[in-house]
Recover the amino acids of this structure.
């Protein structure tokens, strides 16, 4: 009788764990798809990068800066100080907004 109780408890625990994974997996897959699309776009625009996670972090910094009220003109020089040319910095900023914070597109495309 105890063996059946243990099996039932394990099955219920496994079912809950599988359901939890099923609920969280699509969100992480969507984030990966966004990151992949962003990296493809940046690469197509000629912005070279050796460390994709670092570039994604930098894109999120762009969005955070716009969220904090920084204008594209003020953000642009901070990107120019990196390994990007001014043209690459402008393209990178546009790609970051398009991928991660499209609500700020009017700052760039107005």
């Amino acid at each position: 009788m105890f063996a059946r109780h243990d099996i039932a408890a394990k099955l219920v625990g496994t079912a809950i764990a599988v359901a939890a994974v099923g609920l969280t997996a699509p969100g992480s897959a969507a984030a990966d798809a966004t990151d992949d699309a962003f990296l493809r776009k940046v690469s197509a625009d000629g912005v070279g990068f050796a460390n994709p996670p670092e570039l994604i972090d930098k894109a999120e910094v762009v969005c955070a800066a716009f969220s904090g009220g920084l204008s594209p003109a003020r953000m642009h020089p901070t990107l120019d100080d990196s390994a990007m040319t001014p043209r690459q910095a402008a393209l990178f900023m546009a790609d970051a907004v398009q991928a991660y914070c499209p609500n700020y597109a009017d700052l760039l495309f107005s």
The radius of gyration is 21 Å. The CA atoms of residues 34 and 45 lie 16 Å apart. Confidence is low (pLDDT under 50) at residues 5-30. Residues 2-44 form the longest helix (43 residues).
